[in-house]
Specification:
Layout lengths: L2 H35 L4 H23 L5 H4 L1 H16 L1 H4 L4 H25 L4 H22 L13 H16 L4 H22 L10
Helix pairs in contact: 1-2, 1-4, 1-6, 2-4, 2-7, 6-7, 6-8, 6-9, 7-8, 8-9
Length: 215
């Protein structure tokens, strides 16, 4: 096989891995911060950083048949997650002064990165576009859901301002972009931007999905 035949696929794999690792670090920091505010020790911080960063991706991999999941098969994911947790532990005096709006921004960035990485991997495994979009949302919101359960809280995805819906929207943009024959990097960038902007605007405007109001 000529180099030109495998190089485009190699570049696609590198883009997907880079997006996945950046999202892993961002969510690991957020998970460790949640543990810090809950008064957990260093072990608790690292556990929360790991499950927040990799829980969604692990659930996705199990559902699409990517076994063993990347969080177990590839050491770079676990190392990145623990690096995020370690950064929070060692630099917590500085991180405690991080403004709330910056944390919301980081969360939106992590959600966007994971949503597009999740839908991209699902499509690589031959999952239909609709279910691949759902896998994108699972990747983005799954880790935070596991984190909240461990902290005995109602998962934020069930009541937060347009959270999972933003991941679904970003994943849908990726699928539509690929259907229109856009380069993979362009489609993923547009999807991440759509998810990020929708999540930020929803948090700013306090948008919520319709709710059932009991009598």
């Amino acid at each position: 096989m000529a180099v030109r035949d495998w190089f485009p696929k190699y570049r696609q794999d590198v883009v997907l891995l880079a997006v996945d690792l950046v999202g892993t670090f961002v969510f690991a920091v957020e998970g460790a911060l949640a543990g810090m505010y809950a008064g957990l020790d260093v072990f608790g911080l690292l556990v929360l950083s790991f499950v927040t960063a990799l829980g969604g991706g692990t659930i996705r991999d199990l559902l699409i048949g990517a076994i063993p999941p990347n969080s177990i098969r590839d050491w770079r994911y676990g190392a990145t997650a623990f690096a995020g947790g370690g950064a929070v532990f060692f630099f917590h005096p500085l991180i405690q002064r991080v403004p709330v709006h910056l944390m919301i921004t980081l969360d939106a960035a992590g959600l966007a990165l994971f949503a597009v990485a999740g839908v991209g991997k699902a499509l690589e495994f031959g999952i239909t576009p609709l279910l691949a979009i759902i896998m994108g949302a699972v990747t983005g919101a799954g880790g935070g859901t596991v984190r909240d359960v461990l902290l005995a809280q109602v998962p934020g995805v069930l009541h937060s301002d347009v959270y999972a819906a933003a991941a679904l929207a970003g994943a849908a943009v990726v699928v539509m972009g690929l259907k229109l024959k856009m380069p993979r990097g362009v489609a993923m960038s547009l999807g991440a931007a759509a998810c990020f902007v929708l999540r930020m605007v929803a948090a700013w405007r306090h948008w919520n999905l319709p709710r059932v109001v009991g009598s």
